[in-house]
Amino acid sequence: MCGICGFVGAQRGKREDILEEMMEAIRHRGPDDGGSRIKGDAALGFRRLSIIDLENGAQPMENEAGDKALVFNGEIYNYRALRKELAEAGHVFATYSDTEVLIHGYEEWGEQMLGRLRGMFAFVIWDEGKKELFAARDFFGIKPLHYAMIGGNFVFASEIKSILRFPGCGKRLNEEALEQYLSFQYSVLEETFFKGIYRLQPGSFLRWRVGEDAPEIWSYFEPSLAAPWEKSEEEWTEAVDRAIKGSAEAHSIADVEIGVFLSGGVDSGLIASEFEGKKAYTVGFGQEGGKYNEISWARRTAGECHLEHRGRQIREEEFWEAVPEVLYYMDEPLGDASAVALYFLAGEASKDVKVVVSGEGADELFGGYRIYCEPEALRLYQRLPLKLRKILARLAGHLPNWKGKHFLIRGSKSVEERFIGNANIFSYKERRELLRVPTAAPGPGNLLGMDYGRSRGMPDADRMQDIDLRYWLPGDILQKADRMSMANSLEVRVPFLDREGVFALARRLPSDMKQKDGTTKYILRKAASRHLDLATSGRPKLGFPVPICHWMRSKEGEKRLREAFGGEASRLYFRQEKLEGLLEEHLLKRRDNSRKLWVVFCFCVWYEIYFCGGEVYK
Prior knowledge:
- 42% of the residues lie in helices and 15% in strands.
- The protein is α+β, with helices and mostly antiparallel strands.
- The two termini are 19 Å apart.
């Protein structure tokens, strides 16, 4: 695990100083060691967090001839099998690292190597003979990679803050990214919040040759669902249990101790039950046993799994103090308050270990979100004529809040209209009313149109799951997991996101093995019940809930929001009277506007850091 950066092309002067600046910006990703290679057209940089082959895994790494060099962030769990195959084909290895397997694998198989890999990765290979750069990102987007064309140079890095150190990289806000963020709560576009800086999408690779204006990009993998297999419930339970056990074993490869993130729920509990480590970590807010604190549940699960457990309660004051630092490490705004909880959690674990395993991906693969049960709840109502449902929805919209209002409104819409992912903060109309100068950005439904088109004919719950696999999972869940763990120099591994075993099985699950009689992750819970008691395997999902609704009404919370909403970002981009109205409604408890307020608050704090010379954290 590490951070990578570099540039290739026209830049010649002060390359050592430029590369050192870029590497320093991501030192937190690899505090153990650093390495650089400046040769020919390419300058490659690397920061290392030593996990595998502690003595000999240094990067950048060259092939025997010295005409190809690689920098790599991630872990390849089947590297030993690939190394054996490559050695039998005549390749000579100098180390036992997974890094060297990648460079020889590329020599042997080219881009076809990607389909052979089992793991998480973002890497760049420079071919001096061909004057060609090849870069790839893993199947689900566990590891990040960003790039930009600046003055004839192809510039890349694990994090945007490293690219911003390159000479001539001006900072200009991508206002279309802001507008979509207000709906999705995360950066949803290929072009980031910084104009001209892009993310390589999950399951994609690119090629770029010196002198070209832009790279060519291809997709080699899509996390699509497929026609379900016919198996009995017992057969599915056995298959899921076996796949997760195999993935947990593969993700245990390391030359250092591994811990586990543990909530009180089924996802992390199942991983913990298959885990061979000794230590588990949890954070919570407020008193143990309360709505926002799962420490007692996690301690109970840790006892079942014979793990040492450490839990930490986060106070409101330290929560607010941490927000700017969290947003600095995120690179882009993220309106998900659980990122702050994850930041503290990673900090606790990093005191003891360099690697943890975690339960990310289970909800997206096995149907774990309550919203996926909505199509079944709406099924009978949607048999009514659409025209009648539209009339009822219009009438409901003019009435005060009551229990059935939301049901009538959502029941009048197709799944494409009502679902854009697990976060749906501001509607298209609301965000245009909030923004001082709206852009020509399409509405969320139009943005997702092609994706919904691919899933036509599937059950609505599966179509919703497909959207989350493509957007919510890499944009929110995995983004915060990578940034918050790396901010604390900690590697997070996600055994559920195993393409060969777990995903290959989960994509074939029939709907009634995911949601059944109102129960989410039905078959995963059945598998977990083999290892955990019913209180854990059947417990509803909470994750790491944060009491922002209440804390925004506290004296400190109101002060923080008013400071942010009085700053430059708010004055430049938002209608002040609209923000004030949302805040007053919330403070007076007329409506829970906490998620809308939090999304805008995070953007304002982030903008202060990156565009107004705010404090830079190192």
